[in-house]
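WARN no homologs supplied; continuing
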Amino acid sequence: FVSEGANLVLQRLSIAHGMHSRMCFKTFSTDNTLTSVTYSPLESHTISIQNVTLETVGIERSVENGEESATSWKIYFLSDGHMYSRAQVGSPVYMKIKDVPENFYT
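OK structure emitted
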């Protein structure tokens, strides 16, 4: 069972240890029913923040919603586990960092 609180920790650990294949767990959906959550690796991207070139590693998180289509997010992390960006698939809202984190390490 993966709670919302454990979700980010699981994603950061997956990045730190290398995510090579899809992982499936149980979680609660938005209507509080037990359902599946799937984490899948995404292709890495090279980005530039403040004239610093960095590599990002991505994870797609999909939560099944019964008869409706799954709710999915695409989340990219820097190599040290800092979240770079997060976007819910189908939503116009997109979040990303604008500065290199002060305590960033490679």
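The two ends are 31 Å apart (CA to CA).
OK
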